[in-house]
Design a protein that fits this description.
- By secondary structure, the protein is an all-alpha fold.
- It folds into 2 domains: 126 residues; 73 residues, no CATH class.
- It is 61% helix and 0% strand.
- It has 9 helices and no strands.
- Helix 3 packs across helix 5.
- The radius of gyration is 19 Å and the shape is globular.
- The termini are far apart.
C-alpha cells in the first residue's frame, strides 16, 4: 500500500462525505459507492500499467484518486470540472509542484469525455485513466448491478432479470479500449457476461411453449 495514496484517498473520502457525493443520487443505485469506485479505478490503473515504463505512474494514479471527488448530490454532469478544481485547491494547499498539478487537473477535467480515447496525440495517461474508469462495474459486476436494480424495482420474475441483463451488461457494443491489455480484459469481461446470460437462458427454459399455457 502506498502511504501517500492512502492519505490522498482519506482526503477524497472526507471531501465526498461533506458534499454528499459518496452515495449515488439515483434511487435505483443505492448500492453504488463513488469512493469504492475510486479505489477500484486506482487498482485498474495499477493493473493496466504493470511493466509499462513509459507511463508517468504518479501522474496517472493521482488523477485516478481525485477523478470523481467533485461528485455531489446533484448536477453531476459537471463533476469532472469540479473534481479538477477541488484537486487544484488541494494541490495548492499541499505545495505540490505547479506543472504536475496542472497536468493532473487536465486529466481529471477531461476523463469523462470518452470520445478522447481515440483522439490522435492523446497522452497515454489520459487513455489509461479513461480505460480504468470504463472497466469498473463491467463483467461480473455488471451482472450483479443488473440484478440489484431489478431487485430494487421488485421485478416480478427471473425472466425480467434475464431481459435486463441482455439489454444492459450483455448488450452488443464495440470494444472501446485502446491499449492491448485493456482490450483483452474488456473481451474477457464481455465473455463472462455472455456465457452467464446463455446459461441463464437455458436454466430458465426461455422459449418453452409450456409457458404459453
Amino acid at each position: 500500500m502506498n502511504q501517500k495514496y492512502k492519505e490522498y484517498l482519506s482526503y477524497v473520502k472526507h471531501y465526498l462525505s461533506e458534499h454528499q457525493g459518496i452515495e449515488s443520487p439515483n434511487p435505483m443505485h443505492p448500492f453504488r459507492s463513488r469512493f469504492q469506485h475510486t479505489i477500484r479505478v486506482l487498482h485498474w490503473c495499477e493493473r493496466l500499467t504493470e511493466g509499462m515504463e513509459e507511463v508517468d505512474q504518479e501522474l496517472l494514479c493521482t488523477a485516478a484518486i481525485f477523478h470523481d471527488i467533485g461528485y455531489g448530490s446533484y448536477d453531476n454532469e459537471y463533476h469532472a470540472h469540479r473534481s479538477a478544481q477541488a484537486f487544484g485547491n488541494f494541490a495548492k494547499a499541499q505545495g505540490m509542484e505547479a506543472e504536475f498539478s496542472k497536468q493532473v487537473q487536465w486529466l481529471i477535467a477531461h476523463h469523462s469525455d470518452k470520445s478522447l480515447l481515440r483522439e490522435p496525440g492523446n497522452s497515454l495517461e489520459m487513455i489509461l485513466l479513461m480505460e480504468a474508469d470504463l472497466l469498473d462495474e463491467e463483467g461480473a459486476m455488471g451482472i450483479v448491478w443488473d440484478c440489484m436494480v431489478m431487485g430494487n424495482i421488485h421485478a416480478s420474475s427471473y425472466l425480467k432479470a434475464y431481459e435486463h441483463i441482455m439489454e444492459s451488461s450483455n448488450k452488443q457494443e464495440p470494444n472501446p479500449m485502446v491499449t492491448q491489455r485493456a482490450r483483452e480484459i474488456w473481451e474477457q469481461k464481455k465473455q463472462i457476461v455472455s456465457e452467464f446470460a446463455e446459461q441463464l437462458k437455458e436454466d430458465l427454459m426461455v422459449g418453452s411453449a409450456y409457458f404459453d399455457i
